[in-house]
Design brief:
The protein has 129 residues and is mainly β. The protein has a single domain, classed as Galactose-binding domain-like (Jelly Rolls), CATH 2.60.120.260. It contains one helix and eleven strands, in the order ββββββββββαβ. Strands 3-2-4-10-6-7 form a six-stranded antiparallel sheet. Strands 1-11-5-9-8 form a five-stranded antiparallel sheet, with no helix packed on it. A hairpin with a 7-residue loop joins strand 2 and strand 3. It starts with a strand and ends with a strand. The mean pLDDT is 85.
Length: 129
C-alpha cells in the first residue's frame, strides 16, 4: 500500500470563469483566499497533480481520503468522474489505471465550503494498493 499526501501543491480556480490559478495548501480558510478578482466564485475547482507511485502491474484500488471537505460537488481523476461511495470522509475509487502523471480535480460549492465548521480539508491523501 502506497500513501500519497495530498495536502500541499493544490491549485484553485474559478470553475465558471477563466482565471489565473492560486496555489494553496490544505487546510483552507475559504474567506481568506486571495481570488484574482477579489471575489469568491460560486464554484471552484481544486486541482492536484501527482505522479504514479511504484506499484505492481495490476490496476491498483484507490482510497481517496478527504476529511473536512464540505461542499464537494464532484471529483475527477484524469478528467473522468470518480465512481465512488462515501464512507464518512473516505471515497473508495476501486481499480484504476494510473498514468505517469495524474490530475485529481475536486469541484466545490464555495458558499457551502465557506460556512463549514472547522478547517476545510484537514485530511487529504490517496492510498494505492
Amino acid at each position: 500500500m502506497r500513501l500519497i499526501n495530498l495536502k500541499a501543491a493544490w491549485e484553485i480556480v474559478d470553475a465558471d470563469a477563466p482565471s489565473a490559478p492560486v496555489r494553496v495548501t490544505l487546510p483552507l480558510d475559504w474567506p481568506a483566499l486571495p481570488w484574482p478578482d477579489g471575489h469568491a466564485p460560486a464554484r471552484a475547482l481544486l486541482v492536484r497533480r501527482f505522479g504514479r507511485p511504484p506499484i505492481g502491474a495490476s490496476a491498483p484500488t484507490l482510497r481517496l481520503r478527504l476529511g473536512g471537505f464540505a461542499g464537494v460537488m464532484a471529483t475527477e481523476l484524469n478528467g473522468s468522474p470518480i465512481p465512488r461511495r462515501e464512507d464518512g470522509d473516505v471515497l473508495v475509487v476501486g481499480p484504476v489505471e494510473l498514468l505517469e502523471r495524474n490530475t485529481l480535480t475536486v469541484a466545490v460549492d464555495v458558499a457551502l465550503a465557506s460556512v463549514a465548521p472547522g478547517p476545510w480539508g484537514v485530511e487529504a491523501s490517496l492510498e494505492c494498493g
